[in-house]
Design a protein that fits this description.
single chain; 6 helices; alpha/beta; 2 domains; 4-stranded mixed beta sheet; 31% strand
């Protein structure tokens, strides 16, 4: 009951893909690389997930209900680190199957704890903002990083698990040296929509984009790769533990809203209700973009 996507087949070759489908190299039992729970490739649909570094590739397995078969780009350092971790723990070299226990589902800038529904938290819990990997800055002498805040945002009567992304400085297109911030226009080029009212959730999920979760932790925001499969658009420095409320909301809808604002729009709000107010102000000013992203993993 193994599933091998066309992207995975293109990476591993037809012969290896056919051998997997015939059961030659597929494990009978495995630990799902997404939820880490046991799986049985003979009794339940199973996805092949290929982690690809600069020089190394590792094939892992997952419940098809958790994540589809796909290619996930990870750093070579992370991939080799997973191999070393397995070797030290077991005293032997890691196999593709055993690597699923040590390898995060995707490379990983960091996330922040979720806010309460619509920012109306029972107490003054402060949402936290992270500092992900450097992004392309508008000026060659600057580096901007993407800060990500997790929160539950109320759209109508529904609370959506949400991510608010805000760079620390202007983000320009490749070759732009003017200092002009093009962050929102870059995202609208990818189908993100400007938000006029935060109470209205985006209508359709963005094809090819997803929010990657594994074992209840946030790992990355994935975008379509130019070479096929998925690549990390944003990745956490270390897998981030979200709250139960955020995880339940994400799992209930199997979707996450990603909001994006230019640098200096929202900042570090001390309370969740203030974060919602900042989103409303950004929408009223026409500087809030959003998209509905499918949830990958659990």
């Amino acid at each position: 009951m193994l599933e091998v996507s066309e992207d995975v087949r293109a990476e591993i070759g037809d012969d290896e893909a056919d051998n997997l489908l015939a059961g030659a190299h597929a494990p009978d039992a495995y630990d799902c690389t997404s939820c880490r729970q046991p799986g049985d490739s003979h009794r339940e649909p199973t996805s092949t997930v290929l982690f690809v570094g600069d020089e190394t590739a590792v094939l892992a397995f997952a419940h098809a209900r958790c994540i589809p078969s796909q290619v996930v780009a990870v750093s070579e350092e992370q991939l080799l680190g997973a191999v070393r971790s397995i070797s030290q723990t077991q005293g032997t070299g890691g196999t593709p199957e055993s690597l699923t226990a040590a390898l995060p589902h995707s490379p990983s800038p960091s996330a922040a704890p979720p806010a309460g529904p619509g920012g109306a938290a029972p107490g003054p819990v402060a949402p936290s903002v992270n500092t992900p990997s450097p992004a392309t800055a508008a000026k060659p002498t600057q580096l901007a990083v993407l800060g990500v805040t997790c929160g539950i945002v109320l759209c109508g009567d529904t609370g959506y698990a949400s991510l608010v992304v805000e760079p620390t400085g202007p983000i320009g297109r490749p070759g732009n040296t003017s200092g002009e911030d093009e962050f929102l226009s870059l995202l609208t080029d990818h189908g993100f929509q400007l938000v006029q009212d935060v109470n209205n959730a985006p209508v359709r999920p963005r094809t090819g984009w997803s929010v990657l979760m594994a074992m209840g932790k946030l790992h990355a925001i994935l975008q379509p790769s130019a070479t096929g499969g998925s690549a990390a658009w944003w990745q956490a420095h270390a897998p981030f533990q979200v709250t139960d409320a955020w995880r339940v909301a994400a799992g209930r809808q199997s979707e996450v809203i990603m909001y994006a604002v230019p640098a200096g729009t929202i900042g570090r709000q001390p309370r969740e209700d203030l974060l919602r107010m900042a989103l409303d102000r950004a929408a009223a000013s026409g500087v809030l973009a959003a998209a509905l992203l499918p949830l990958a993993g659990t």
